[in-house]
Each structure stands twice: as structure tokens, then as C-alpha cells.
Hints:
There is one protein chain. This protein has 204 residues and is α+β, with helices and mostly antiparallel strands. It folds into 2 domains: 1-33; 38-202, Glutaredoxin, CATH 3.40.30.10. 37% of the residues lie in helices and 21% in strands. α3 links the parallel β5 and β6.
Amino acid sequence: MSGKFRRSLSQGRWLAIVSTFVLFSLTACQQQEPWALDNITGLMPKLEFNLTNDNGQAVTADAYHGKLVLLYFGYTNCPDVCPTTLATLAQAVRGLGADADKVRVLFVSVDPARDTAPVLKSYTGAFGPQFVGLSGNEKALDALTRRYRVVYSLDKPDAEGNYAVNHSSGVFIFDGSGNARLLGSSTSKAPEITQDLRQLLASG
């Protein structure tokens, strides 16, 4: 066997070893990513708002300091996406067992004209004690939706005055210090959300 051929063979083996190592390293890095939902750490601003809760009281984000907060925008007359998403979030929170009280789901109405405090209270109460309805005037709502790049629009009312509201379906998850950490959606699965909430709670 010539020296040139042996060198080529050795180089070939070395390249194979290096390629295997690189592939393993990349796979290991991918496996270390702990989140089922989208990681938005450092990409969105901290939780901040001035709204009214479903008891008719003025409230800010400070009221939920120390809790994991799931922020979702919708409206009580929503026929499908909102109740389905909230039901999924309720299932995810229940999956935490005794830690469920460490979480708050804030449902922000994008239809404050119809979603009064009593209406919100009745609606959110059906999903669990961790759910809170929030609303605000146009200025406060616009400030919050711009902050998290949420869009919504009201359709033209029909003859009976009924109308639909088109809105984003993201679920923003904040840690106990109010930092934006994860982003889910109306298609996220309850077990995935529970898993991520457990990891956030464990990380303090």
C-alpha cells in the first residue's frame, strides 16, 4: 500500500470521526433545548399594563409579581378559538397539581364595549380560579397590544348589532419577575404547556 494511499485513508477516517463528532454535538445541543413552546426570552418586553380586572378594580402587572403569567387576548363572544384555547390553558394549569396557584391566566378583552367586568367575571370563572378577566379603555388596550405586537379588528355589526372580532391568538408566558419567556398559540397542546410551566417554576 503506497504512503499516499495510506495518508488518504487516514484522512478519510479522520474526517469521518470529525463528522460524527460534529453531528453528535449538534444533536446534543438540540436535545438540550428544554422548551416545547417558542423561547422568546429577551425578545419581548416585560409584563406591563394598566387595566381593570373583572372585579372592576384598577390593576397593574405588579399585582401578579411572583406568579407565572399567561397572557391571552380575546373576547367572550368568540365562538371557537377563545374558549378552546382557554380550555387548553385550564387543562395545562390543572396538570400542575398543587403548583397551579403559582400561575395566573390573564384574559384581556379586545371587545371592552360588550365585555364588562361582570361578563368577564362569569366567563373566566368557568375555566378556573387562576383565570382573571382584564379590560381597559381604548388608550390602555392599544398600548398593551402594541407592546406585544398583537393585532385585532372589529367587523361591521349586522342588523342585530352583533359583530365578530378578529385578533391574534398568541399566548405569552412570563416568569415570576415579569420577563417574557415563552410563546404558545391556540394550537399548543396542554401537556406541552404544563411541561414548560413546570420548568419555569423549577428555574425560580
